[in-house]
Specification:
It is built from three helices and four strands; from the N terminus they run E-E-H-E-E-H-H. By secondary structure, the protein is α+β, with helices and mostly antiparallel strands. The protein has one domain: Pemi-like Protein 1, Chain: D, CATH 2.10.260. The chain starts with a strand and ends with a helix. 0% of the residues are buried.
Length: 75
């Protein structure tokens, strides 16, 4: 997807359309981290404590629900 930079005051912005935000599971209130490796600009969602807690709950559920399957796979 090609996007043009848009001037906003003394800065420039990249406008992300609704479909792209939905695909990344973001909304207009999301916090993102912007970084670069020198060649590429990287925009990544900020992981919150809430996200980590939800992941741990899902992980615990999966481990308890599929303990037997995990043991068989580990062999």
């Amino acid at each position: 997807m090609v996007k043009k930079l848009t001037r906003t005051g003394n800065s420039v912005a990249v406008v992300l359309d609704k479909a792209l935000l939905e695909a990344a599971n973001l909304d207009e209130n999301a916090s993102v981290e912007v970084s670069t490796d020198g060649n590429v600009i990287i925009i990544a969602p900020v992981k919150t404590k809430k996200d980590a807690d939800r992941f741990r709950l899902a992980e615990d559920w999966a481990h308890s629900s599929y303990a037997g399957a995990f043991k068989r796979l580990a062999k």
